[in-house]
UniProtKB/TrEMBL annotation:
Signal peptide: none annotated. Belongs to the ABC transporter superfamily. ABCG family. Eye pigment precursor importer (TC 3.A.1.204) subfamily. It is found in: Membrane. The lineage of its organism: Eukaryota, Metazoa, Chordata, Craniata, Vertebrata. One of its GO terms (molecular function) is efflux transmembrane transporter activity. Its main location: membrane. One of its GO terms (cellular component) is apical plasma membrane. InterPro entries: AAA+_ATPase, ABC2_TM, ABC_transporter-like_ATP-bd, ABCG_dom, ABCG_transporters, P-loop_NTPase. Gene3D superfamilies: P-loop containing nucleotide triphosphate hydrolases. Residues 29-279 form the ABC transporter domain. Residues 1-21 are annotated as: Disordered. Keywords: ATP-binding, Membrane, Nucleotide-binding, Transmembrane, Transmembrane helix, Transport. It is a multi-pass membrane protein. This is ABC transporter domain-containing protein.
Length: 600
């Protein structure tokens, strides 16, 4: 289904037909008296919090064209961009409003606006065309766009962004060299242009790129702006050729605006204040030097001067007119829904997950190899278990404990399941690609189940026959079911940990703890009846215990081939308990995914 847009089609040559997405005129974005603050702890162990303003009473107007937000490191340019793009936690916004074409904007605008993040977030195992097709299929409504329309949109974006040469090259991963940095950035911009946005936000689009690539990215943005789009971006210290492409410049320092107006009038503004830009000095460097040089402790004299300047008074005047005409009942951004239905999203996201596993199979191979290796090892150690006591009992107990340990600890790799894609999920989910439930179910159906069940069956079969357990299909099946359930419960717990934390180090610590506690309460290392009663309840949560209980099933009893009702009843009780653990972990994982902080 990922191929809903036919991926290898030739780019259309009809210019008029392929460019409709770049014709919509951009809106005017205004922001009034924005004050944004964050809470900081007074000291590392302090219970007291202080509020720190990172945007202080900031107002401005951004028209269609190239709107740059510039300032020194930590000045608040990304924060300003995020607040006006609806990406920053709305709880921090203490006052002010953002309007798009004189209509109040809610933070749900992020679901339907275009925002290119600083670090390109793309699926590395997919090609440029496949990534763009993924965006088109999910973000363009099926009612309004046929497959051919979507394909045409992908082709036109590839053409417009000059991505023809690398359209069928993979983006690249840790193991795979892919497209260049500039091509990756173009592809990230293309992911957003697919929806034909008239308003485009970009966070530091040139950071990490060499001078020529940075220049070509900015030329591309300028081309878009010339077609009427409102392009708003933060940028740190651009070279002159880039600076000269700006239409509007907002200079910010310590959360306050020190200049806002036409970019080509900024030098004369500062020269009027007595700062001289040397003939060969880069204006961007000059502005940062002036800004940094005038800061006196917490005073920001340039911001004070700006607030008295005709530029600011003019902005204020226009903003007052807009405010007066405002209808507070009308908002943009609420009732924003997804462009595609649930089942369709599930097919596309699952398809991408499977494709990603197939193209990046190292972990799956390692998992399979480990299972086969341990299967043979267990089979050799406990080869043809004798039927006489005490060897029969000791070896069978040891063998089953070993099997269950492998089932549980063999799934440690599952903690990376979600962490490795966390940033991608947050970006796509908050940009309105798909629902959280879709992502969660795609992981369960396309990753968790197939990746964990197939190796378990291979692993289980090898030692079963080597150990000389009961040659009975029914018993073998029940034995495999138990080990699969042990594996799935252990994976679900790993998935819960993976969904709850953002770093591998934390996840490894958090998963090791319950696994070890469960092992202790598994019934092999300690007699559970002789334990302190207030501790012994932990046995009910032990995956090891329920898995280990299977040991009574496949015993070769000469002359007795059927299982008694008691044994079967005990067997199903264990399966119900394992299913319960699995379901609880999966439900909690889903809750954790929903709780992830999507704000910047
Ligand atoms: N969520 C947050 N939590 C804590 N501090 C924050 C948060 N967001 C922003 N800040 C602080 O606000 C200030 C402005 O940050 P911001 O990222 O907007 O600056 P910037 O100008 O974009 O810097 P840079 O060029 O280094 O990216 C910084 O001191 C930063 O530490």
């Amino acid at each position: 289904m990922l191929d809903e847009v036919v991926l290898n089609a030739q780019p259309s040559t009809d210019k008029e037909e392929t460019m409709p997405c770049f014709q919509t005129p951009g809106p005017t974005l205004t922001f009034h008296n924005l004050r944004y603050s964050i809470k900081e702890r007074l000291g590392m162990f302090s219970m007291q919090w202080v509020e720190k303003d990172i945007l202080k009473d900031v107002s401005g107007i951004m028209n269609p064209g190239m709107n740059a937000i510039m300032g020194p490191t930590g000045s608040g340019k990304t924060s300003l961009l995020d607040v006006i793009a609806g990406r920053k936690d709305p709880r921090g916004l203490k006052s002010g409003q953002v309007l798009v074409d004189n209509t109040i904007v809610t933070s749900d605008l992020r679901l339907c606006s275009a925002y290119v993040v600083q670090n390109d977030i793309l699926m590395g195992t997919l090609t440029v065309r496949e990534n763009l097709a993924f965006s088109a299929n999910l973000r363009l409504s099926r009612k309004e766009y046929s497959s051919a329309d979507k394909q045409m949109r992908v082709d036109s974006v590839i053409q417009e962004l000059g991505l023809n040469d690398c359209a069928d090259t993979k983006i690249g991963t840790m193991f795979l060299r892919g497209v260049s940095g500039g091509e990756k950035k173009r592809c990230s911009i293309g992911m957003e242009l697919i929806t034909a946005p008239s308003l485009l936000f970009l966070d530091e689009p040139t950071t990490g790129l060499d001078a020529n690539t940075a220049n070509s990215i900015m030329e591309l943005l300028q081309k878009l702006s010339k077609k009427g789009k409102t392009v708003i971006f933060s940028i740190h210290q651009p070279r002159y050729s880039i600076f000269s492409q700006f239409d509007h410049l907002t200079l910010i320092n310590k959360g306050e605006i020190t200049y806002a107006g036409a970019a080509n009038r900024a030098i004369s503004y500062f020269e009027d204040l007595g700062y001289k830009c040397e003939p060969f000095n880069n204006p961007a460097d000059f502005f940062l030097d002036v800004t940094n040089g005038t800061m006196v402790e917490n005073d920001n004299p340039l911001a004070v001067i700006y607030r008295k300047s005709p530029n600011f008074l003019n902005v204020k005047d226009r903003l007052t007119h807009i405010s007066d005409a405002l209808d507070p009942q009308v908002t943009k951004g609420d009732r924003v829904g997804y462009a595609t239905p649930f089942y369709y999203q599930l097919m596309l996201v699952s398809g991408r997950t499977i494709r990603n596993i197939l193209r990046n199979p190292q972990t799956s191979y390692a998992q399979l190899f480990l299972n086969i290796f341990f299967g043979i090892l267990v089979g050799l150690i406990y080869y043809q278990i004798p039927h006489t006591l005490p060897e029969a009992l000791q070896n069978r107990t040891g063998a089953f404990f070993f099997l269950v340990i492998n089932m549980v600890f063999g799934n440690l790799s599952a903690v990376e399941l979600f962490i490795s894609e966390r940033v991608l999920f947050i970006h796509e989910n908050s940009s309105g690609f798909y629902r959280t439930s879709v992502y969660f179910l795609s992981k369960v159906f396309a990753d968790l189940l197939p990746n964990r069940i197939l190796p378990v069956f291979i692993f289980s079969a090898i030692p079963y026959f080597m150990m000389g357990l009961k040659p009975d299909v029914e018993v073998f099946f029940l034995y495999c079911v138990t080990l699969s359930m042990v594996s799935l419960s252990a994976v679900s717990l790993a998935f819960l940990v993976s969904a709850s934390v953002g770093s591998f180090a934390m996840a490894n610590i958090l998963i090791a703890l319950p696994y070890v506690v469960m092992m202790v309460f598994g019934g092999f290392l300690v007699n559970l009846n002789s334990m302190l009663s207030w501790m012994s309840w932990l046995k009910w949560a032990s995956i090891f215990r329920y898995g280990y209980n299977v040991k009574s099933l496949p015993v070769t009893t000469p002359g007795k081939t059927r299982m008694t009702g008691d044994i079967l009843w005990g067997f199903w009780q264990n399966q119900v308990a394992l299913t319960g653990i699995m379901c609880v972990c999966l439900i909690l994982s889903y809750v954790q995914l929903r709780r992830i902080n999507r704000w910047k």
